[in-house]
Amino acid sequence: xxxxxxxYGTYFRIAxxxxxxxxxxxxxxxxxxxxEGFRDSVLFLPQKLIPGSEDWGLFSRxxxxxxxxxxxxxxxxxxxxxxxxxLKAKLSNPRIRLFMDDETLSVLAKRLADIPPxxxxxxxxxxxxxxxxxxxxxxxxxxxxxxxxxxxxxxKIVYIEFVSGHGKRMSGKFVLLKMEYSPKNDKFRVYxxxxxxxxxxSSGIINIGRITNIVDTGRVFRTPVLIDDYFSSRKxxxxxxxxxxxxxxxxxxxxxxxxxxxxxTVRNLETGxxxxxxxxxxxxxxxxxxxxxxxxxxxxxxxxxxxxxxAKLRIKRQAELLxxxxxxx
Amino acid sequence: xxxxxxxIKNFDKTRDYVRDFFIYGCKxxxxxxRKSIRTYGDExxxxxxxxxxxxxxxxxxxxxxxxxxxxxxxIPENPLYNAYYSKSFTDNDIRLHFLITDILxxxxxxxxxxxxxxxxxxxxxxxxxxxxxxxLREYVDEGIIISKKQGKTLYYSLTSDNAxxxxxxxxxxDDALKFFSETQQFGIIGNSIFKMLGLKNDLFFIKxxxxxxxxEDILLPEILTAMDEKRYVSFRTFSEKRRKKGDGIGTxxxxxxMQLLVSVQTGRRYLAAYIPTLKRFSAFRxxxxxxxxKGGICENYDALKAKFDCNxxxxxxxxxxxxxxxxxxxxxxxxxxxxxxxxxxxxxxxxREKRCCTLEKSGEHLYxxxxxxxxxxxxxxxxxTFIGRIVRIEGGADSVRDRFYSDIARMNRMYGGDENExxx
Lengths: 329, 424
Description:
The complex is a heterodimer.
Chain A: H1 10-18, E1 23-24, H2 26-36, H3 41-44, H4 46-49, E2 59-61, E3 67-69, H5 81-90, H6 102-111, E4 124-126, H7 139-154, E5 156-163, E6 169-182, E7 187-196, E8 199-207, E9 211-220, H8 227-234, E10 240-244, H9 250-257, E11 262-267, E12 274-279, H10 285-293, E13 299-303, H11 305-324
Antiparallel strand pairs in A: 1-3, 2-3, 5-6, 5-9, 6-7, 7-8, 10-12, 10-13, 11-12
Helix pairs in contact in A: 1-2
Chain B: H1 11-23, H2 37-51, E1 55-60, E2 63-68, H3 81-84, H4 91-103, E3 110-111, H5 112-121, H6 129-142, E4 145-150, E5 153-158, H7 163-169, H8 173-180, H9 187-196, E6 204-206, H10 220-228, E7 231-237, H11 240-244, E8 251-262, E9 269-275, E10 280-285, E11 289-297, H12 301-312, E12 330-337, H13 344-353, E13 358-363, E14 366-373, H14 376-383, E15 390-395, H15 398-414
Antiparallel strand pairs in B: 1-2, 3-5, 4-5, 7-8, 7-11, 8-9, 9-10, 12-14, 12-15, 13-14
Helix pairs in contact in B: 5-6, 8-9
């Protein structure tokens, strides 16, 4: 049993897809490879599928030039032991109750009774997760989550009442776009547009755990919405520009910690320092700032000016505090 | 580039390249000095082929640099999963895969001889018994085929656990697959299920998403089994320094595996383990690790695990410091300025992020965090996210406190305090 096995591979999957129909043709083979394969697969894979000198022998050519599979049935889609072990492990994850009801879970557990879990939850320890995670076992939370999920799937317009991050009671009609999960916060949120008179007024994000009431209006938002437009509306206008030094293994630490950001890096050949541009969501600016400050003098925020200014104010205040309380050495 | 293939045999080598492209970005061909130019070219082309639009190119005086640039919070699927979907195979492998499963499609059990006969007669495919036997044995291990002995003869049949029937029988499993496929642990396995079913994740994005972790998942099954069986594991480690020096051998270490430690903020995962030769616990980075192998049974595993469970409560992150088995811990106190009336969110932050620290009000607008920890440095990295509020640091090592004071002085100058200091 190994995750790195050809039976899960892209080539096997494409072959399985093409073998679903008794007859196919070269055009379909090439299109399927183009669509389902890696970027260059079209250079390597079609000749393995289409009868010729290099092929695997999975198809034979018919008199009319089509391709006939050598198998008698569409390929089976059996779950491997590894896949079942993974599913079994997920049964002990409380988040699974957000998707499946208790009765279904109980039947699934019986079906997998003879399968050992791939891992036990206690074999992993998350060292730095925030403790105020969503309550995934709360029945009302589960109901709200499922309502949100259905609204996202079908672009339903929903009326939501919730408490904002600043403690304000908010309400309105929203169209919900996608859900977001943060392993750091252990929370689900939903990307949304606030509607006024059925038109998009502004973009937002709502914590599922802060929803106090959610009602399906029975209506669907039919105007096409591009998720990229939503992200663009929330993106910083200019990236954070950070100079990263080599001190204290700074480059490796920084690059890894900020690996989840879209970034562009340039290395100074003489000093070995890196200049990194990071693109971030505007609402995460404070989070980004404090994470940058935690690197101390190993990095320097070069821009944008307002971000550098915020850093400067905090550092100045810090120096004053140490002075005031007589801690400065 | 004759003989180039998109598929790979060796996951470890590719893991190194993908990591370098992804983490560092601006490396050029001459930086990859550990292998030949040809190897670099092949690896680069492969990664380009898997990653598609996620690749970025920049031209500089040193040459063209290649990087993987992904806003991993805004992607429906981890593109690095493609590395797992690229295992090379032989013509016989793929032929036998589809033929054997086709023969057993009707649910009936067959002997090896019957299967070979059907292959030869019905499908006109000549395979010797040994080749088919090996493939059947492999698929029994994978759980695709079930073998049962009747008398002295083994009978083979297909497992009845079909992915389509799971989708039909268990309402909500498709959405669960979409979510768990993009989250830890082993999202790649969930992804392989819904790829088989032709599903796409159209529901979830993952924030604070360290997609690079998937490359380390290759190591985990062996470690997890060793934990279950209370065994030693051995592996080789390749730190960044060693890799830069072109060290292809690394350091061999044998340990007793205790727990896998995952940081959702720093992008690192570790194996926490007991090192018998040093008689201490330590944490090993998974991204520096290769070739994990289970060893013999550890007779005192339970006793070590009990000690570990006690010690881990004194780790702010993953470091056990330099102490021995049950080492001494250092008490540390950090006092912060908080205007609780106007800044209640700071107290909320402290509560949710303080981990093993205790928090108490120690004066007007003053709150003190106290913790007994093995490594005060780890606490200080987090404490520095409160820059602008730290009033006092007590305990810990002198060097830790001195470094903090000197860091603040340097940063104050760097950002235009009393004098300008550009970082050196």
